Amino acid sequence: MKYLVILADGFADHPIERLGGKTPMMAAKTPHIDQLCCISKSGMLKTVPDSLHPGSEVANMTIMGYDAATYYQGRGVLEAAALGIDFSEDDLVFRCNLVSEEDGILLNHSAGHISTEEAKELIDELNDKLGDDRVQFYSGVSYRHVLIVKGGQNGIQCTPPHDHPGEKVEDYLPTPASGHETAELLRDLMMKSKSVLDNHPVNTKRKEKGKAVANMIWPWSAGFKPSMPTLKELYGLQSGVVISAVDLIHGLGKLGGLQSVFVEGATGLFDTNYSGKAEAALKALEENEYVYLHIEAPDEAGHEGDVDLKIKTLEDIDQLVVKPVLEYLAKHKDDLSIAMLPDHPTPCEIRTHTRDFVPFMIYRPGVEPDLVQEYDEESAKKGGFRSLDQTEFMKVFLSGSK
Ligand SMILES: [Zn+2]
């Protein structure tokens, strides 16, 4: 048996008045998704453990079959894995933003979405001036980088910078719950990063062009390497791939022993190369047992609060992803299982993730479809799988029953 997960990030939503109380999933014209629903069995799934925030990395981890409350160790380690950084058990790994600071105020979390090339120069300079046997910076994409502190102590409270633009830096510096020495080191690095970066030629040029400068580091979401079993060890899956435009999802896949497939034109936005991603997924199924096709676009539309755009992303997924998948399924009806679901809702009205249960459907040869014929937040509640809790989903997907 082969397994295809179509993960439409942030797909689910709330009823919207302007749509006559329908959700975007209900309002979108999605004949192929409905067709898949008619041969599938659906239900509702809890993807976020009570102890964690409803982040995509947490929810996707659950859907891949990991108990996130046990294995989630922060964004830093996932991004480090995605960048192919080789780190060991005693490395404390942080996501490290390049941010803009002025007169003690955090202006923004992204240094004006600085380019990867400019950022790399700054990260190299930071390593030159502040790096040593213990402290090492690794450059990633745009403002998103990694800081590793060898032998660091965890138990530090760091704040995500995107939650506090326009506020005082000193109110959100790393504070020790237990790791006093490491918290002190981080504060020191943040302050020193200012003098290294402030007058760097990259920033001088950005200032001249009226762009936001990248004049401070902001480490957060610390963790140690999770002792995650691979999907092979956990579920006996022989081979698998992740297709995504998002680093965190690739990092998750790598820690789970999956290969990364990158598709040209995959942007993570509404203009992504849907057809190319579907094609890559079907090609990967020829060689692999498990394919995780992650599509970020609906989540971004939800964050924008753009209802029409969200409906468009759903209709594009229907036409450009689910349609070719159904054509492929027609030739592989007896040896392909398909699951479709979002990781969490990103309701347009609130423009952020919620921890509500998500609607899912599973097609599996030999599993009798239920009577649900439309795939949306309400219909799935009447589905044959009723409601599932976290890792139960993977068990059901791989075996057909709980
Ligand atoms: Zn998400």
From TrEMBL:
<comment type="similarity">
    <text>Belongs to the BPG-independent phosphoglycerate mutase family. A-PGAM subfamily.</text>
</comment>
<dbReference type="GO" id="GO:0004619">
    <property type="term" value="F:phosphoglycerate mutase activity"/>
</dbReference>
<feature type="domain" description="Metalloenzyme">
    <location>
        <begin position="1"/>
        <end position="396"/>
    </location>
</feature>
<dbReference type="Pfam" id="PF01676">
    <property type="entry name" value="Metalloenzyme"/>
</dbReference>
<dbReference type="InterPro" id="IPR023665">
    <property type="entry name" value="ApgAM_prokaryotes"/>
</dbReference>
<protein>
    <submittedName>
        <fullName>Cofactor-independent phosphoglycerate mutase</fullName>
        <ecNumber>5.4.2.12</ecNumber>
    </submittedName>
</protein>
<dbReference type="InterPro" id="IPR004456">
    <property type="entry name" value="Pglycerate_mutase_ApgM"/>
</dbReference>
<comment type="pathway">
    <text>Carbohydrate degradation.</text>
</comment>
<dbReference type="Pfam" id="PF10143">
    <property type="entry name" value="PhosphMutase"/>
</dbReference>
<comment type="function">
    <text>Catalyzes the interconversion of 2-phosphoglycerate and 3-phosphoglycerate.</text>
</comment>
<dbReference type="InterPro" id="IPR006124">
    <property type="entry name" value="Metalloenzyme"/>
</dbReference>
<keyword id="KW-0413">Isomerase</keyword>
<keyword id="KW-0324">Glycolysis</keyword>
<dbReference type="InterPro" id="IPR017850">
    <property type="entry name" value="Alkaline_phosphatase_core_sf"/>
</dbReference>
